[in-house]
Amino acid sequence: MRKVYLDHSATTPVRPEVVEVMNQYLTNNFGNASSVHSFGREARKGLETAREQIANLIKAQPEEIFFTSGGTEADNMAIIGTAFANQKKGKHIITTQIEHHAVLETCHHLEKLGFEVTYLPVDKNALVSVEKVKEAIRDDTILISMMHANNEVGTIQPVKEVGALAKEKGIVFHVDAVQSFGKLPIDVNEMNIDLLSASSHKIYGPKGIGCLFLRKGTKVEPLMFGGAQERKRRPGTENVPAIVGFGLAAELAGKEMAQENERLTKLRDKLIQGILEKIPHVQLNGHPTQRLANNVNVSFHYVEGESLLLMLDMKGIAASSGSACTSGSLDPSHVLLAMGISHEIAHGSLRMTLGKVNTEEDIDYCLEVLPDIVAKLRSMSPLYNSGKIEN
Ligand SMILES: *Cc1c(COP(=O)(O)O)cnc(C)c1O
After folding, report:
1. 305 near 326, Cβ under 8 Å?
2. Residue 388: pLDDT above 80?
3. What atom of ligand 1 comes closest to residue 70's alpha carbon?
4. Are 181 and 42 found together in one domain?
5. Of 52, 202, 208, 236, whose CB count within 10 A is highest?
6. How many distinct helices (H) and strands (E) make up the chain?
């Protein structure tokens, strides 16, 4: 049976070049980067090369990159760290309703500690309005945290405009760029970003490693203590093999970005058009054009998303319903609900995120299998068969 992986926003396979360089740092160059001997110096060299590779991709300085265990930790470090460092100035934070749980739940935690958080609404395409950000700013606002591209529906936010606004008002600006890092051009200076979260396993690097870009002069309290690593902001012996792998993955993503985006956009649009043409009662979720090149998110009316996933899995197709984190719970995606989509329609949503391994044949296979599955599920739906639906 054909196996088609369409869940690249959940995670990606580690690319062979990355495996190769990681292997070197797991075996020959195994030293502790803090050791002064040659083994330590080799490890340190790998670490600093990775810092440069990552800084280059977002036009930052290498000393502004701090390695973390991933996107979640970077989000926590940025938001809690900024809140604690600025609480004398104010206790108000602005974010959006469609953030990843790593941001939302961190903000909920801060609310319990006495901070106030405004969760901005979005429009039907999941876009945040710059005007709404402006209106939400108060004298005691210390942080704006907004994602660059949404992990569920792929909508790309007006980060540059919000960055300009934050700078004008002297507010720290954090961007969760886990879904855009290596996929969209990012210039932290042009976009006035003070803090940016990125993760390795979404760009064909290993899991459990990521980083926080921390603009020079931006105050962030550390969350952990116990060593001088990462200039005391993130103590603990560095995971050098993972860091080196992340660095190379970032460099290669940058080199291949334009070409890969062009290829994926074609595949994405073919998949979207095919679905809309072949299957009745279906809607595209997310912005029609301002969206990631690899994201397809659709809702099939009168279909239950989880059943759809199981039937696709039986045909070798790996996709997701809403975000991987909400799968398994019965609550529909908070992102789809924020976009004004009803519970029923949100329950019938399917996310397919393309990547390097996907070909046109994968899309053809998907378009061959999907209409039958949807038809089969609808034939079992009492609502669909109640005679109220016109085809
Ligand atoms: C995956 C993801 C994260 C979490 O990153 P991890 O490295 O898995 O912790 C955070 N934000 C967004 C938008 C993501 O897609």
Report:
1. no
2. no
3. 7
4. yes
5. 202
6. 11, 12
- What is the CATH number for 140? 3.40.640.10
Atom of ligand 1 nearest to the CA of 99: 13
DSSP letter assigned to residue 210:
E
For residues 175 and 196, membership in a common domain is answered with yes
Average pLDDT for the chain: 95
71 CA to middle of ligand 1, Å? 5
Determine whether the shortest distance from the Cβ of 154 to ligand 1 is under 6 A.
no
Domain check: are 81 and 142 in the same one?
Answer: yes
9 Cα nearest atom in ligand 1 = 15
Question: Is 389 among the domain residues?
Answer: no
* Nearest Cα residue to 172 out of 199, 136, 146, 198: 146
Q: What CATH number is given to the structural domain containing 374?
A: 3.90.1150.10
pLDDT digits (tens, 9 = 90+) for 321-377: 864 444 555 688 999 999 999 999 999 999 999 999 999 999 999 999 999 999 999
* Domain shared by 262 and 332, yes or no: yes
Q: Which helix (H) or strand (E) holds 361?
A: helix 360-379
C-beta of 82 in contact with ligand 1 (< 6 A) = no
Residue ranges in 189-234 assigned as alpha helix (H):
none
Supply the pTM of this predicted model.
0.96
Is any atom of ligand 1 closer than 6 Å to the C-beta of 297?
no
Residue numbers of the domain that contains 47: 16-253
Residue 152 falls inside a structural domain: yes
Q: Is there a single domain that holds both residue 248 and residue 266?
A: no
Candidates 38, 65, 131, 145; CA nearest to 102 is: 145
Q: Is residue 390 part of a domain?
A: no
Asked if residue 41 has pLDDT above 80, the reply is yes
Among residues 115, 59, 54, which one has the least CA distance to residue 88? 115
Buried b (16+ CB within 10 A) or exposed e, 53-82: bbbebbebeeebbbbbbbbbbbbbbbbbbb
For 274-319, write each residue's pLDDT tens digit: 999 999 999 999 999 999 999 999 999 999 999 999 999 999 999 9
Q: Indicate if 241 and 316 belong to the same structural domain.
A: no
Of 253, 278, 293, which one is at a domain's C-terminal end? 253
pLDDT for res 329:
59
- Cα angle for residues 232, 234, 235 (degrees, 5° grid): 70
**Are 248 and 339 contained in the same domain?**
no
